[in-house]
Amino acid sequence: MLEKSFKLKERGVTVKGELAAGLTTFMTMAYILAVNPDILSVTGMNPGGVLIATALSSAVACVCMAFFANLPFALAPGMGLNAYFAFTVVLQMGYSWQFALFAVFVEGLIFILLSLTNVREAIFNAIPLTLKHAVGAGIGLFIAFIGLQNSGLVQGDPATLVACVPFKDDMTGVGLLSLLTLLGVVLIGVLAYKKIKGALLIGMVGIWIVGIVLQAAGLYVPNPEIELFSLYPAWGLPDFAGFGSLVGQAFSSTAFANFNIPDFLIIMFSFLFVDIFDTLGTLIGVADKAGMLDEEGRLPQIKGALMADAVGTVVGAVTGTSTVTTYVESASGVAEGGRTGLTALTTGVLFLLAIILAPIFISIPSFATSAALIYVGFLMLSSIVKVDFSDISEALPAYVALFAMPFFYSISHGIMFGIIFYVLINLITGNTKKISPLMYVLALAFILKFALLG
């Protein structure tokens, strides 16, 4: 049955390998079960309910990815999009979280319509192969930066914006966790060098166990006031009552109180814009790393992948969470050997289990997942060597896309700037044959986006 559904032999994988890849992807994504409720709760949404909505919408989207596209990509409410939902739409603009959910719902419906047509597929195929390689490498730097942040290795600094954690002064708190992250990277690297299957998963669990031992020995002392939590697996019950307070609220009277059509359109299209290009960027980068793109840089199963993303967004809006999108952490499962929808299905099932076992999954420490993200970033960076650096018209746009993702903290911004630079440089230098008509349209749309929407 699994062979027929996922074509395992055709892609050279086994059930065991796909299950391990799905578990690895889930473990690197599990932080969203803690982070998303934390962010959305500032709007007044019930955090326990948001956790269940997050897990449920992620599970549905992952199952859709498995059966619509047979690809190893996982989905969940997107970071950045949830912050825009909470801090911009609700706290800054003053709209209710119900209004924001309705905007996400409409965005998801439009996404479905676009996925049924060839619009998004055409955008994917129009992006030059050089930029696709750069996007893969840029995502590598982006998720490595996320890992550095989550582990505490990168600290904010008023003079230089970022700085390394002061190990010498902080070896009982974040400094210790940061050191464990680095040791986790070393452990994963050694296991990978030895060609041990499941290196990422073994490395994450192994360094988590080291942390548990340190806590048992009294060398690590939990202190929730400074966000140093116990490393022991926890247990508890899901907040179904809180979940009930969120379901269907996108259509409540509160969502339409003081409804402003111009604001609604700006908010809805902002969600749509970022969702489209975050998803395309992730699909490009992870598919390129997995060797799933054809000779022309196309992804054969992209329409199903885009539909899974759109369905997940609609389900998320109905159940009570922000926009669902394809996750860059899918790269961890791909690095572990995941090549079929069975990987995505495994991740989806684990998200369902997370509803019951949420406290256990949330207790996966950030230093363990961060180590995996940093290592996966290294793996994805290798795609940049496919760029022809002797041709400035190809290399400079690739370079811009590469640095824009981590420095602007946005996959979509990396794609946008890369496309704008590609069109302008090749247009001015007379290489117009390299530019497809759709690339002109995209470049103009992105320029207008930055000019009018920010």
Description:
The protein is mostly helical and 454 residues long. It is 66% helix and 3% strand. Strands 1-4 form a two-stranded antiparallel sheet. It starts with a helix and ends with a helix. The model has no long low-confidence stretch (mean pLDDT 87).
Write the SSE topology.
Layout lengths: L1 H5 L8 H15 L2 H9 L6 H22 L6 E3 L3 H12 L4 H20 L2 H8 L2 H23 L2 E4 L3 E4 L9 H20 L5 H18 L23 H5 L16 H30 L11 H18 L4 E3 L3 H6 L5 H22 L3 H16 L10 H17 L2 H18 L8 H16 L2
Antiparallel strand pairs: 1-4, 2-3
Helix pairs in contact: 2-15, 3-4, 4-13, 4-15, 6-12, 6-13, 8-12, 8-16, 8-17, 8-18, 9-10, 9-16, 10-16, 12-18, 17-18, 18-19
Low-confidence stretches are none
Helix content: 55-70%
The main sheet comes to: 2 strands, antiparallel
Order of strands side by side in the largest beta sheet? 1-4
Supply the number of structural domains: 1
User: What is the 3D shape?
Assistant: globular
Strand content: under 5%
Taking Cα atoms only, what radius of gyration do you get, to the nearest Å? Answer: 21 Å
Distance between the termini: 49 Å
Q: How many DSSP E strands?
A: 4
Q: Helical segment tally?
A: 19
Tell me the structural class: mainly alpha
Average pLDDT: 87
Please trace the helix and strand order, writing H or E for each element. Answer: HHHHEHHHHEEHHHHHEHHHHHH
Brief overview:
66% of the residues lie in helices and 3% in strands. It is mainly alpha-helical and 454 residues long. It has one domain.
